[in-house]
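[step 3/7] fold_predict: job queued, chain A
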Amino acid sequence: MIKAVKFVSVFVTDQDAALAFYTQKLGFSVVTDQPMGPDARWIELRIPGAETGVVIMKPMMPDHRVGVVMNMAFVTDNVQKTYEELSARGVEFRQPPKPEPWGTSAIFADPDGNVFVLSSK
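[step 4/7] structure written:
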């Protein structure tokens, strides 16, 4: 049976810029960075303390799109504190922390315009 999500893929135009963003601004670490065809690499990242990885890759098929709303959310214990820390590192937020009945969320984007939710548990 399925036990977990191994990784999610985020399509980017510039893997070096994306690697800098995800490691230096978001604090992810590199699991692997290997060649994958001409002008592309398989870059798998790990979120500290999490099992699910994030792969930053160039689009390889016509239906792969860069700069979209990603259907995933990152979880944090304190959205406001994480928002402040990431904002100080230069992360662009499209929505500051917003309390809702189900929890607090904020919305940010990577350099390619991929949009993510930052949410409390």
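[step 5/7] annotate
The chain is about 15% helix and 40% strand.
The domain at 7-59+66-119 is CATH 3.10.180.10 (2,3-Dihydroxybiphenyl 1,2-Dioxygenase; domain 1).
exit 0
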